[in-house]
Amino acid sequence: MTTDKKARKIAVFDSGVGGLTVLRELYQQLPNESILYFGDTARLPYGIRSQSEILQFVREIIIWAIDQDVKMIVMACNTSSALALETVQSEFDIPILGVILPGAKAAVQKGRRIGVIATPATVTSNAYRQAIQEMDAAVQVWQVSCPEFVPLIEQNRIHDPYTYQVAQEYLAPLLDQRIDTLIYGCTHYPHLAPVLRSLLPPSVRLVDPAVHLVKSITQELELLGLRNPNLPRPTRFCVSGCPQQFASVSVQWLGYTPAVEPTVLPVIETSETANLSLGEGRRS
């Protein structure tokens, strides 16, 4: 265990490689911070899961991450942020940040006709629409569910003609509404930037919530006095599925082939056993 809390790692998790967009921003904005990255690749995509499943997965990941002696947990996953953030923030005594509020705030500052592309679960939750309209009720919001995007990205098929075709179909109703701003409502989606930009009018502004999430992380670390002033340790990558698959897909965005550890999470069968498992992590 690291006695200096400032030197402890920040845990970042996602269903797969999507959270690398957040990791990339962490490297740029907070270069001194050490990172523990977890990809729940055995259970992706998250976007077609129920709220109870997502909550169970998130609790398992948080319990595991706390056991790795981290100082903060970052949900680099819109689906988890939409369906589980408030619940686990009330259950665990560790800072836990999600991606939706920072993304919604940035979008409201940019546009009045906002499109959101997201996973089915995030769209169904209405999390982005609610967050945006709580900030400014006059802003109009249209959401489109994009179930095929995450599997295509995880299969490294970004530049397939089929991916362009799917993207065209997903964007069509948003273009019909003459959106002026588009939110990447899933951290995987910035990987599709070349595809989406080729299909969107130049006037449409793209909002990557990862950029704004890391600004929030910076503010939270400052507030808590947890910024690391020293050099970071190497990023540790862990996955629940195939390490080789994750390494081969992520190399193009990391610029190197990461060493990836296979990881077994603690099993929680019900919300009741989850409560028993929280131990000292639970708020009094």
Automatic annotation (TrEMBL):
- UniProt-listed Gene3D superfamilies: 3.40.50.1860
Any Pfam family hit: Asp_Glu_race
Q: Which domain of life is it from?
A: Bacteria
| InterPro entries per UniProt | Asp/Glu/hydantoin_racemase (IPR015942), Asp/Glu_race (IPR001920), Asp/Glu_racemase_AS_1 (IPR018187), Asp/Glu_racemase_AS_2 (IPR033134), Glu_race (IPR004391)
Q: Which GO terms describe its molecular function?
A: glutamate racemase activity
Write out the residues that bind substrate: 14-15, 46-47, 78-79, 187-188
What is the active site of this protein?
A: 77, 186
Catalysed reaction equations from the record: L-glutamate = D-glutamate
- Which UniProt keywords are present, listed alphabetically? Cell shape, Cell wall biogenesis/degradation, Isomerase, Peptidoglycan synthesis
**GO BP:** cell wall organization; peptidoglycan biosynthetic process; regulation of cell shape
Pathway(s): Cell wall biogenesis; peptidoglycan biosynthesis
Regarding protein family, the annotation reads:
Belongs to the aspartate/glutamate racemases family.
Q: What does this protein do?
A: Provides the (R)-glutamate required for cell wall biosynthesis.
The name this protein carries in UniProt is Glutamate racemase
Which species does this protein come from? Lyngbya aestuarii BL J
Q: Which gene encodes it?
A: murI
